[in-house]
Amino acid sequence: MEQTISYGFCSRLVHAAAAMSFLLSGSSSLATPSSQVTIPSPDVTPQFFLHVDVDNTTTIMKKQSDGGHSNPVDIGLTFGIFENYMFGMEAGLDLREQTDYPLAYNFKVVLKEGAIARHTPGVAFGVYEMGDSQAKADINITYGLVSKSLPPVGRVAAGLYIGSSNRLLDDQGKEDSAGFLFSFDRTLAELDERLWVAVDYMSGAHHLGALSLGVAWRFVVPPRPAVSVLVGYNIYNNPDKAGDNTFTIRFDMDFGG
Fold first, then answer.
1. Residue 1 within any structural domain of the chain
2. 32-36, 147-151, 249-253: which has the minimum mean pLDDT?
3. Torsions phi, psi of 16, nearest 5?
4. Which residues pair with 246 in a beta bridge?
5. Count of the separate structural domains present in the chain
6. pTM
7. Is 95 inside a domain boundary?
8. CATH number of the structural domain spanning residue 118
9. Rounded CA gap, 42 and 34, in Å?
10. Is 2 within the bounds of a domain?
């Protein structure tokens, strides 16, 4: 179905790009779609919204000789392609600097929770880490998630993934390209509706397998344009492959509406 993009939307997009350029000009991982702490979330970017995130994952106060390390800074752009009461679709790219092959791509489609009947779960399907094969960055993780809100406990999501058998390897060089995903998230409305917590897990002895814990603060609460900051901690399944545990600091911004 064709969509007519109004002048007002184009103007907002221009302003968003300008704001993004200003932000990034002051700035000195992983190519993900809309996510929890590190793994994909069951959510989707709203139609015609531009989501911008800047991720910095690093050890803190640890010398390189003692295992200190960091990932390239990851600047992600995700655009909401389509959304109605049942479905949503988004696509995005990540710019990871400094790397020789900085671009990676992602795509996700979502069947919303309760779309078919009142108690039906949400379903998300997508692919991420689609990178350059010459740089051995074509991890190509395809995944499926099923999610369900369980008030007042929170929301849980679980699913499976499979990636490139040549890229997802353990520290012995053995293939470890398939596994499961799990996440839990909740807005702590009892304290403040701007406070959100999440836990996610990706199985596997490869460099991405980890348990991640995160807490975020929304400076502006959706559905208005939102800005949030997340602080997370990543506990790797296989430190011999992934290195020492790291902290993640992520800035998220939504433009549109």
1. no
2. 32-36
3. -65, -45
4. 234
5. 1
6. 0.84
7. yes
8. 2.40.160.40
9. 8
10. no
